[in-house]
Design brief:
By secondary structure, the chain is α/β, with parallel strands linked by helices. The protein has 2 domains: 295 residues, UDP-N-acetylmuramoyl-L-alanine:D-glutamate ligase (3-Layer(aba) Sandwich); 130 residues, Mur ligase, C-terminal domain (Protein-Tyrosine Phosphatase, Chain A), CATH 3.90.190. The protein has 15 helices and 17 strands. β12 and β13 form a beta hairpin. α3 crosses α9 and α3 packs across α10.
């Protein structure tokens, strides 16, 4: 199949990301395990850093990739969801030494990988899901290009997620908060137990969650070693810098001062610390400071407090749950607090409480909310967001599409105001494609 045909075939499968309410029973590993067995178990051809967490796992995956590539490795990276093109989920870094940047899988390679899965699906007892297909395609392609390591981000939870066919040499947990409670909850302890399912015997666990009760759940997993945030690794200094963060980080027996990370938000300091600890554990020794410096400098995290325009200042952030929204609001205040006046362009998925999300985004600091539905079957109606904003005392308008909302927000804002586009990665992806099509 060529790529259009392959993507049409992919679209014909159940996409749990697009379902209004996925159930825990929808998640299982038997089918993808059988598929990978038919492929010759490509995921056994390279070591894996496996990453889960409620927030920050995508950024942590990108930073980990940059560090491993800066050390001279060829690195495959699997993340989800994508912002603009499905190719973004499957990336490869390490082609240019210290200057390596992860690049999405080329169209012809993606078409070939999807075609290979399609040829084998007929031998399975059940049809694959959309996410299982992409996971298998990624794991196969990484073996085809002979990566030295793969960084794999969990899609949902951990224990029954399709990515849990891998046995991570290093397992990373960024944090745990209340999200997807209807699928992997209902409580924080249930969510933690599900995420702990990625920790395999002999692995080193990089534990970013600091709540003692939740940390205890992860400590019961069969890791050979547990490195805890704050004691074994962490961020000793985290300061605002021009274009990002100035960080002092530490891992067991090593310290790194004055690192520059070109990403906004204090929370990126924690993500960088977890990524550096993961790289240390992967190599079994501290990384060279010059390599760490080079790797951090090359990090790019699209859609996370990403500045895509000026006059008005336009910022994209994929915060999609209350914890992420609070972190985004605090980061905007710190990095762009001198900008007078704010307009929020917001779209959310069903299952979110729009009042809770808007409060987390500090909506009362905005003079206008422009609501839009994310391009997803799970979209929350924009009228619900408008009603929530009005209830909180903020003027609001509803639009039918992300593009219309972006245009309205930018047109209404003055040149010295800030337009924050947020609430869902689907909103951010559509807005990014609309605002920066050349990318």
């Amino acid at each position: 199949m060529d790529l259009p045909a392959a993507l049409d075939w992919l679209a014909g499968h159940i996409n749990l990301e697009a379902r209004p309410s996925a159930r825990a029973g929808d998640l299982r590993l038997e089918n993808i395990r059988r598929l990978l067995d038919l492929m010759g178990d490509p995921h056994r051809a390279y070591p894996v850093v496996h990453i889960t967490g409620t927030n920050g796992k995508g950024s942590t995956a990108r930073i980990t990739t940059a560090l491993l590539a800066a050390a001279g490795l060829s690195v495959g990276t699997y993340t989800s969801p994508h912002l603009e093109r499905v190719n973004e989920r499957i990336a490869w870094a390490g082609l240019r030494g210290l200057n390596a940047v992860a690049e999405p899988i080329p169209d012809d390679a993606l078409a070939e990988a999807l075609s290979a899965v399609a040829q084998l699906e007929v031998l399975l007892d059940e049809r694959l899901t959309h996410f299982e297909i992409l996971t298998a395609a990624a794991l196969r392609w990484f073996a085809d290009v002979a990566v030295d390591a793969a960084v794999v981000e969990v899609g949902l939870g951990g224990l029954h997620d399709a990515t849990n066919v891998v046995d991570g040499q290093v397992a990373v947990v960024t944090n745990v908060s209340l999200d997807h409670a209807d699928t992997i909850g209902p409580g924080l302890a249930d969510i933690a137990a599900t995420k702990a399912g990625i920790v395999k015997p002999g692995a080193t666990l990089i534990l970013g969650e600091t709540d003692p009760a939740l940390a205890a759940i992860f400590r019961r997993a069969p890791a050979e070693a547990v490195w805890a945030r704050g004691s074994d690794f962490g961020c000793a200094s985290n300061k605002l810098a021009i274009g990002g963060r100035a960080l002092d980080l530490f891992t067991p027996g090593a310290g790194y001062r004055s690192l520059f990370l070109p990403a906004h938000g204090p929370f990126q300091g924690d993500n960088a610390a977890a990524a550096l600890a993961a790289a240390h554990a992967f190599f079994g020794k501290p990384m060279d400071p010059d390599v760490v410096d080079a790797g951090m400098y090359r990090v790019r995290i699209p859609g996370r407090l990403e500045v895509v325009g000026h006059g008005p200042l336009c910022v994209l952030d994929g915060a999609h749950n209350p914890a992420g929204a609070r972190a985004a609001a605090a980061a905007v205040n710190e990095a762009f607090g001198t900008v007078q006046g704010r307009v929020l362009v917001v779209g959310m998925l069903r299952g979110r409480d729009p009042v809770e999300m808007l409060e987390a985004l500090n909506v009362r600091s905005a003079r206008l909310v422009v609501a839009c539905p994310p391009p997803s079957p799970r979209a929350l109606p924009s009228t619900d967001v408008v009603a929530a904003a009005v209830r909180l005392g903020v003027d609001a308008r509803a639009c039918d599409t992300v593009e219309e909302a972006v245009d309205l927000g930018l047109a209404d804002a003055t040149t010295d105001e800030l337009v924050l586009i947020t609430g869902s990665l689907y909103v951010v992806g559509a807005a990014r494609a609309w605002l920066v099509p050349s990318r």
